[in-house]
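Q: My labmate handed me this sequence with no annotations at all. I'd like to see what the chain might look like in three dimensions before we decide whether it's worth expressing. Could you predict it?
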Amino acid sequence: MANGSAVEISELRVRRGKTPVFDGLRLSIPRGEITGLLGPSGCGKTTLMRAIVGVQRIDAGTVTVLGEPGGSSRLRHRVAYGTQGAAVYADLTVRQNLTYIAAVLGAPKGDVDRVIDEVGLRAQAGQLVESLSGGQTTRVSLAMALIGSPELIVLDEPTVGLDPVLRVELWTLFRALTERGVTLIVSSHVMDEALRCDRLLLMRSGRIIADTTPSALLADTGTADPDAAFLAVIERDSRAHDGSSRPRTRRERRGAAE
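A: Here is what I predict for the chain of 258 residues:
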């Protein structure tokens, strides 16, 4: 793939009913980095991730992942997807959930213990998932995505509902994975997580309105924090599309970000 890209998307078109979600989206995601998909709810983050892992019906265009068509059976052991809702069996223990996924993927025997330790669930390994807290259940779902040492991990809002300490621990894990050569695509609507990514794709209404890095985003917008930077990018994008030169009010800017 061009320049060692993990994902190449060309002229992607997706509709939800009669409403277009993407209309000719083009995108390239590099290998071995954390790429953050950021933007307000409903901007297309989850649809894009589903297209990358091959579970989204597309109307036109191409999605190439690790050199293969998105959703190809040859990607089964190379791509992992952590959905926004915890994809786990509540009536099984943490270890049973992970053992099942390891068997399906033909993962090494030591993988279950490895990922239990990586997500900090050693003490809860024998508990039923239904007895866990929301944050612990999210960690089980993440552990399932880590089974089998995939080359590309796609995580949809992995830190939702987690306390600040655990969020930091997970981002430390994400960074360790990239140091092993793994590519991560992580979606979030929490803008302070943008600063933990190598690359940022800011989305709005099914479009990529900025393809940048954390430092470049702050420098380009002249702001000191990612929330203000994103609002500045939205303001710029809005002016470009509606032709208005009038500065918008604080209430209008707030509404655009929601």
